[in-house]
Design a protein that fits this description.
Elements: E1 2-6, H1 11-22, H2 25-30, E2 31-38, E3 49-56, H3 62-75, E4 82-85, E5 90-93, H4 98-109
Antiparallel strand pairs: 1-3, 1-4, 2-3, 4-5
């Protein structure tokens, strides 16, 4: 499964998130992380969006990734919004409440063949 993470508006936050995820054992051992540019949608103005691209191994627990991202958000002064993009949808984490985290996990885990081994 390929998943892209974006932190709109701040390249420093994206670099910090990459470093944070690289230090998480589960992510480090079961995902390949790279940085790439994603073009804006047609009609949008501005520069291409820099994103983290994660290639996740089959059976990777998406919940651990979302929990890691939520933990990282809590270390940031401004608590940035994080966008999760997969091939079918964009899911936004803008709160670290238990309900928000569970909603993101459910949405990303829904119909993901790699989550059902």
């Amino acid at each position: 499964m390929e998943l892209k993470l974006a932190v709109p508006g701040d390249a420093d936050d994206l670099r910090s998130l990459r470093e944070w995820l690289g230090n998480e054992a589960d992510v480090r051992n079961h995902a390949k992380i790279s940085t790439s540019l994603t073009p804006l949608a047609e009609g949008e103005m501005g520069l291409d969006l820099e994103v983290l691209k994660l290639i996740l191994e089959t059976g990777f627990n998406i919940a651990s990734l979302v929990m890691s991202v939520a933990s990282w958000r809590e270390t940031r002064r401004a608590k940035p919004t994080v966008e999760f993009h997969d091939s079918r949808r964009t899911v936004i984490l803008s709160s670290s409440s238990e309900e928000a985290i569970e909603a993101v996990i459910r949405e990303l885990d829904e119909d993901d063949p790699s989550s059902h081994s």
